[in-house]
Amino acid sequence: MSFILSPAEPADVPELTSIYLASFVDPFSLTLFPRTPGVRAWWEQDLAQGFADPNVRMLKVVDDASGRIAAFAKWVLPPPQGEEENEEEKGEALPEWPEDADGQLCQSFFAGLLEAKKRLMGPRPYFYLEMLATHPDFQKRGAASLLLSWGTARADAAGMPAYLDGSPVGVGLYLRHGWEEKGVVVPEVNGESAAERWEKRYLCMVREPRAGETGR
């Protein structure tokens, strides 16, 4: 199977949304974002906004044989030296959740991820893998590795760390690419832990820059 890594385009947004929604189908994810037309429209708008941000790189991996997008990633790059960002530009402002979503759970979960990122990374500049999704038809075939390597190579070249938060399902892949687990986020709503109800927790991982490496 041959994959091609390239920048994603705004016209890809509907397919990227379908990949995201097909990739995260565990009970916790379905509670956060039920698969309704309103939720899909919200995700399409969210992904489209990435193309308007000069510090965001939307990438895709295309299966050469079928022409389908196998996986995509959203990398948030540090701003150019000397430029300051507001909270929204830093990705530190939470959005308004779609009406069909579990807003309370979304707020608890994403606020926890944001606080962990701020605590672990502090004021230093870093590369942030905000989103990585592979369609189930193409999982465990190397598409995600291409997207990871794109960012880690650039972080190494810049001498900067990289950060991600993700489910334990992908931890083996992240470890192989040099990431280290630094924390765990478990959302809680009305005193009930997501780890108890959904067996769900998210790992906070940091990859320090490596001199002379390509990120592969």
Automatic annotation (TrEMBL):
Pfam families with a match to the protein in the record: Acetyltransf_1
SUPFAM superfamilies in alphabetical order: Acyl-CoA N-acyltransferases (Nat) (SSF55729)
Residue ranges that the Swiss-Prot or TrEMBL entry lists as coiled coil: none
Residues of the N-acetyltransferase domain: 3-204
Key words of the record: Acyltransferase, Transferase
Highest taxon above the source species: Eukaryota
Name of this chain's protein: Acyl-CoA N-acyltransferase
Organism of origin: Punctularia strigosozonata (strain HHB-11173)
